[in-house]
């Protein structure tokens, strides 16, 4: 799984932040490493130096093997809050998406040995 971190203007300590983000995502998404080819992270400061509430934004896009990519976005007052919020959303989305695909693949057929079985008493 490849992790690419992109930072926008207004984001400080870019290299340290990128290393930290890669380590955090590697741990958080380790359960899905066989299903993921790449995760892209986009961190930005939407308001710059202006005072405001949730002006830090983190968008994450996960590229899945043999499936469409999925994406989430989270806003927060700090870079950490935005990143952790987005990574939590991405983990839940992957759990849901890949869980549904696995359930669909694992469901048995209503047929046994090529014949349709009727329930007793019908």
Structure description:
The protein is built from 2 helices and 6 strands. The protein has 122 residues and is of the alpha+beta class. The chain has a single domain (2-101), classed as Double Stranded RNA Binding Domain (2-Layer Sandwich). The strands form 2 sheets. A 4-stranded mixed β-sheet has the order 1-2-3-4, covered by helices on one side. A two-stranded antiparallel sheet has the order 5-6. The model has no long low-confidence stretch (mean pLDDT 81).
Please give the structural blueprint:
Blueprint: E1 2-7, H1 14-28, E2 36-45, E3 56-64, E4 70-76, H2 79-106, E5 111-112, E6 115-116
Parallel strand pairs: 1-2
Antiparallel strand pairs: 2-3, 3-4, 5-6
Largest sheet: 4 strands, mixed
Low-confidence stretches: none
CATH topology: Double Stranded RNA Binding Domain
Tally of separate helices: 2
Please give the alpha-carbon distance between the first and last residues.
52 Å
The CATH C-level class name = Alpha Beta
Number of domains: 1
The CATH homology group name? Ribosome hibernation promotion factor-like
Give the proportion of residues in helices: 25-40%
What's the arrangement of strands in the largest beta sheet? 1-2-3-4
Q: What fraction of residues sit in β-strands? A: 25-35%
Encode the helix/strand succession as letters.
EHEEEHEE
**Secondary-structure arrangement, i.e. CATH architecture:** 2-Layer Sandwich
Average pLDDT figure: 81
Q: By helix and strand content, what is the structural category?
A: alpha+beta
C-alpha geometry: globular
Number of strands: 6
As a whole number of angstroms, the C-alpha radius of gyration is 20 Å
């Amino acid at each position: 799984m490849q992790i690419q971190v992109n930072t926008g203007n207004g984001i400080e300590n870019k290299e340290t932040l990128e290393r930290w983000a890669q380590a955090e995502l590697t741990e958080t998404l380790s359960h899905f490493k066989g299903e993921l080819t790449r995760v892209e992270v986009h961190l930005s400061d939407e308001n710059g130096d202006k005072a405001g509430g949730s002006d830090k934004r983190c968008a994450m896009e996960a590229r899945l093997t043999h499936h469409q990519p999925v994406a989430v976005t989270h806003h927060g007052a700090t870079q950490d809050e935005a990143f952790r919020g987005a990574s939590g959303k991405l983990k839940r989305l992957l759990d849901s998406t890949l869980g549904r695909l696995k359930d669909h693949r694992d469901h048995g057929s209503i047929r046994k040995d090529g014949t349709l079985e009727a329930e007793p008493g019908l």
